[in-house]
Description:
- The chain is of the alpha+beta class and 255 residues long.
- It has helices at residues 5-17, 23-39, 44-55, 59-70, 90-99, 151-161, 182-190; strands spanning 107-117, 121-130, 133-143, 170-175, 194-197, 204-206, 214-215, 226-233, 239-246.
- It is built from 7 helices and 9 strands.
- The strands form 2 sheets. It has a 5-stranded mixed sheet.
- α1 packs across α2 (23-39).
- The longest helix has 17 residues, at 23-39.
Amino acid sequence: MLKNKYLKQWSCIVSKHLPNLSLPQAVGLATWSFGIALTKSSSLTQVSRLIATINHEKPNTVRQRLKEWYQEAEAKKGDKRSSIEVSSCFAPLLAWVISLLPAEQKQIALALDATSIGNKFTVLSINVLLAGSGIPIAWCIVKATEPGSWKGHWQKLISHLSGVIPAEWQVIVAGDRGLYAPWLYELIVSAGWHPLLRINHQGHLQIPPSTTWTQLAGVVNTPGQSRSAQVVCFKTHPSNVLFWHVGISVTKTLG
């Protein structure tokens, strides 16, 4: 039972915006996020101690409850235990973020990111870019040494968010050059979003109506210069793209 009124209020908010969660799951998430925000730490020990203090409970009782919250069903005590299907939270989480934006806002920026955790894991995530920060709204974790393409993972992540953002909104999707692939570009476009992906400067492009292939590195070669155009990119697998190229500095002219 929650005794702290602020924790109660936060639990109600979490349950309202993530209706896919059962009440115990929503309370668990609210307790974890409440404790993390106040302690500025995700340490199980620190969060347990804080919640125990403000909710008048024993630290070990809170610790066990918080630990069981993120465990698989078979690791929990009791007969009616279940695992949390994290992907079911992605769409409502994005809808929650959108609901907090100004009513007049009709655009949103997303970022695709791949972050390696040592040589063990890689976290693939889609984030809402807001006020200089990235808010993770969909993610999956793969083994760093896992062979094969990430295509299936990105397809699932994007499909979870399909239809959440109002159709009339402009959606910019940014990604680093390491994430570029023709299938990813097409996947973003098929979702009704606008790709803003970095590519290597060794490539070539055509600027219609010309059919001559021009080196990408030579299109912009002066610091501060910029250029945008609808072009055909890549000799091997030609694709119509909106090209945007900026000169940053003398030693690094590609942005």
